[in-house]
Amino acid sequence: MLIRQAEIQRAVRRIARQIERDFQGQRVHLIGVLKGACIFLSDLIREIHLDVSLDFMAVASYGKGKQSSGQVRLLKDLDTSIEGLNVILVEDILDTGLTLNYLCRILEQRKPRTLRIAALLDKPSRRIIPQVQAHYLGFEIPNEFVVGYGLDYAERYRNLRDVCVLSQPPE
């Protein structure tokens, strides 16, 4: 086990307070990156005491294994315009930066008032695009393949309450 549920909940509350300080009295629009960020996003949105709206995007870069393909494809786009909104892109893990760089480039073209990144986990040692950084971060972790709290291996283990290292993938 890498990060226990209680530690995760403390980090979610801390991130929510940071967002509240940064956007005092303003509306924020959270965009969850499916599927991995779903649990982090649902906990985070309930902790933010501001006017909050919500949308989702889905991308593919991992396929069914542990290695990113390096190619990012948009699978689901936003349902509404973000022009003029304070947007926070909510992601489970910041790894190489390829996915978030791809999404930020798309979103910046849509003219949000602000665009920030909230990530539960960060693996800086894997970063290919160093300029991609989280404005709001739960934990920096070592270069291990992790599952739980929304993160999966081949669509398994998302429902674990803790973040755990997957040492041996199941057959």
Q: What value does the average pLDDT take?
A: 94
User: What number of structural domains do the residues give?
Assistant: 1
Radius of gyration, CA atoms, in whole angstroms = 15 Å
> Structural class, please?
alpha/beta
**Oligomeric grouping of the chains:** single chain
How would you describe what is shown here?
- There is one protein chain.
- With 171 residues, the chain is an alpha/beta fold.
- It has a single domain (5-143), classed as Rossmann fold.
- It has three helices and eight strands; from the N terminus they run H-E-H-E-E-E-H-E-E-E-E.
- It has helices spanning 5-22, 38-47, 98-108; strands at 28-34, 52-60, 73-76, 86-94, 114-122, 136-140, 146-147, 164-165.
- The strands form two sheets. Strands 3-2-1-4-5-6 form a six-stranded mixed beta sheet, sandwiched between helices. Strands 7-8 form a two-stranded antiparallel ribbon.
- Strand 1, helix 2 (38-47) and strand 2 (52-60) form a beta-alpha-beta unit.
- Helix 1 crosses helix 2.
- The longest helix has 18 residues, at 5-22.
- It is globular.
- The two termini are 21 Å apart.
- The model has no long low-confidence stretch (mean pLDDT 94).
Provide a compact summary of the structure.
It contains 3 helices and 8 strands; from the N terminus they run αβαβββαββββ.
Can you lay out the helices and strands and say which pair or pack?
Blueprint: H1 5-22, E1 28-34, H2 38-47, E2 52-60, E3 73-76, E4 86-94, H3 98-108, E5 114-122, E6 136-140, E7 146-147, E8 164-165
Parallel strand pairs: 1-2, 1-4, 4-5, 5-6
Antiparallel strand pairs: 2-3, 7-8
Helix pairs in contact: 1-2
